[in-house]
């Protein structure tokens, strides 16, 4: 009777829930489990439940690796008869099922049904957890593994688990180094078809992914997604160690190496290690002297893009980094960082030799030369060496004929343009900065500020070594040379060195016999102002 129904197509057993009809009562019973979510058939190995006995039977072959269905043409074996049926069509090339809309042909009716949904946009398979719809039951099954965290496809080489068979297939190529997808334009090969697809856009210049906010276009969807975070300020990648957030996964991976001290990128020339490949690339240009980043204003070349960016601010005068405390602006972030320490009075950089602390790393570096006696800056004219770059610069100007900036009013000379400009303001009649205490006027605000300390007796600049206080930074700077024994000002005639430029100037008069300080009483002249002062006291004593 049951067999006759295969000929008559009679289906007397109907489901009360969805009205689907069946030829056998047992088939209806099995079908009802889909509605009740009942899974009475459990696997003895992994305890996974199934609504059908046949499904359990098929699943069990995953554990036994049994493949009872063999192809009579090529002897390939399969765990399921449906897989064998599909495989046989690869030999016959038969595709009897055609799409009415686009005429695409398929070897199986189920494939045609799935394909038809690409036209109708029908998604009959819905996830019970998140209500996401799918056009194929297989896609729903794979999606459910995201919720259950189930990874049924395991790599037999490294045991890594995957929720999709296709992902396992792609992963396996990392072991076999197989790259079956080749570019017809440049013969570059790829392990994934999607990677080839993306690569082809480098040839076609196609950028199909556009930003809705700024209309910027990208060749990859992932690049667009990353770009969108610049608008949303979203930083979804968080460091487990310090809580720092990143907009890109690659940046987080690179950041992790700070905590692990991992430096996987090594320089072939000097064997120096780096945590990021980009840092190695930047470093390598030290060896090659390559400077691919060029300034379009002055054509100066740079080995790193960030150095060019910083340099451009010397032309634009842009200062994008403001101090939150005093609103002072800086062109470089490093300069702002160093400046902020002047507010906190924190000196994080300490000398290992004398324990003296400094606000910036650069200042510590300079200070260390007082211990090592290192003089890395050499004059290319006379081979004289200097511990500081600024000392070399000042020295080089002495090789030029005369001094470049001379005051036409008082004949005073200057090595630097900014010093010369500041000096000119002394001769200007306009002195807008007036002291409220004694009415003395000044051409520059910083001179008034310095003068006010003569009234307030304020001495905000302290020596870290002997704690002596000074009213201005220049005086402190001069004083520090007493401790460091540094004497940057050298007499060109007798090579005697001095720690202050004023002392050198006074000394030079012993060679020139110049005596600019004259007594207004007896017209006697002196080379030092101090000597004149002592002489004037003698006249005062004679009067009394």
TrEMBL record:
GO terms for molecular function: DNA-binding transcription repressor activity, RNA polymerase II-specific; RNA polymerase II cis-regulatory region sequence-specific DNA binding; zinc ion binding. Gene3D superfamilies: Classic Zinc Finger. GO terms for biological process: embryonic morphogenesis. GO terms for cellular component: nucleoplasm. Residues 13-40, 41-68, 69-96, 97-124, 125-152, 153-180, 181-208, 209-236, 237-264, 265-292, 293-320, 321-348, 349-376, 377-404, 405-432, 433-460, 461-488, 489-516, 517-544 form the C2H2-type domain. It comes from the Eukaryota. Keywords: DNA-binding, Metal-binding, Nucleus, Repeat, Transcription, Transcription regulation, Zinc, Zinc-finger. It is found in: Nucleus. InterPro entries: Znf_C2H2_sf, Znf_C2H2_type. PROSITE patterns: ZINC_FINGER_C2H2_1 (PS00028), ZINC_FINGER_C2H2_2 (PS50157). Belongs to the krueppel C2H2-type zinc-finger protein family. This is C2H2-type domain-containing protein. It comes from Larinioides sclopetarius.
């Amino acid at each position: 009777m049951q067999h006759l129904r295969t000929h008559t197509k009679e289906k007397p057993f109907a489901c009360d829930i969805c009205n689907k009809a069946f030829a056998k009562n047992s088939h209806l019973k099995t079908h009802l489990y889909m509605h009740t979510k009942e899974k009475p058939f459990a696997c003895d190995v992994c305890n996974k439940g199934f609504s059908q006995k046949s499904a359990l039977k098929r699943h069990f072959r995953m554990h036994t690796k049994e493949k009872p269905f063999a192809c009579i043409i090529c002897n390939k074996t399969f765990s399921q008869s449906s897989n064998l049926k599909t495989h046989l069509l690869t030999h016959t090339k038969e595709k009897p099922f055609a799409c009415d809309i686009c005429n695409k042909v398929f070897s199986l009716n189920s494939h045609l049904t799935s394909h038809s949904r690409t036209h109708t946009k029908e998604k009959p398979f819905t996830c019970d957890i998140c209500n996401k719809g799918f056009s194929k039951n297989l896609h729903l099954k794979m999606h459910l593994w995201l919720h259950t965290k189930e990874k049924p496809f395991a790599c037999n080489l490294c045991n890594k688990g995957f929720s999709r068979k296709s992902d396992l297939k792609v992963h396996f190529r990392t072991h076999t180094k197989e790259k079956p997808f080749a570019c017809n334009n440049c013969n570059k090969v790829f392990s994934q078809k999607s990677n080839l697809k993306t690569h082809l856009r480098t040839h076609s210049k196609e950028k199909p992914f556009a930003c809705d906010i700024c209309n910027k276009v990208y060749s990859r969807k992932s690049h667009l997604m990353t770009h969108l975070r610049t608008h949303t300020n979203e930083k979804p990648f968080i460091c487990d160690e310090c809580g720092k957030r990143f907009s890109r996964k690659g940046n987080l991976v690179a950041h992790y190496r700070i905590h692990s001290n991992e430096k996987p990128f090594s320089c072939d020339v000097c064997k120096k290690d780096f945590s990021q490949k980009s840092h190695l690339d930047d470093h390598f240009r030290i060896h090659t002297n390559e400077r691919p980043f060029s300034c379009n204003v002055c054509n100066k070349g740079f080995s790193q893009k960030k150095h060019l960016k910083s340099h451009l601010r010397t032309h634009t005068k842009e200062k994008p980094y403001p101090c939150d405390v005093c609103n002072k602006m800086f062109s470089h972030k490093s300069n702002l960082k160093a400046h902020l320490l002047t507010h906190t009075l924190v000196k994080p950089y300490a000398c290992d030799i004398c324990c003296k602390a400094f606000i910036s790393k650069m200042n510590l570096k300079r200070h260390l030369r007082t211990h090592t006696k290192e003089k890395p800056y050499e004059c290319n004219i006379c081979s004289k060496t200097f511990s500081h770059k600024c000392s070399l610069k000042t020295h080089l100007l002495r090789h030029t004929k005369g001094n470049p900036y001379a005051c036409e009013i008082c004949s005073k000379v200057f090595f630097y343009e900014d010093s010369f400009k500041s000096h000119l303001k002394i001769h200007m009649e306009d002195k807008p900065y007036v002291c409220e205490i004694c009415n003395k006027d000044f051409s520059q605000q910083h001179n008034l500020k310095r003068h006010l300390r003569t009234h307030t007796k304020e001495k905000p600049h302290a020596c870290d070594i002997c704690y002596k206080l000074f009213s201005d930074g220049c005086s402190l700077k001069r004083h520090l040379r007493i401790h460091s024994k540094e004497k940057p000002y050298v007499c060109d005639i007798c090579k005697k060195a001095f720690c202050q430029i004023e002392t050198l100037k006074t000394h030079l008069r012993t060679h020139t016999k110049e005596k600019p300080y004259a007594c207004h009483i007896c017209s006697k002249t002196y080379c030092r102002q101090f000597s004149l002062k002592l002489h004037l006291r003698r006249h005062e004593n004679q009067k009394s």
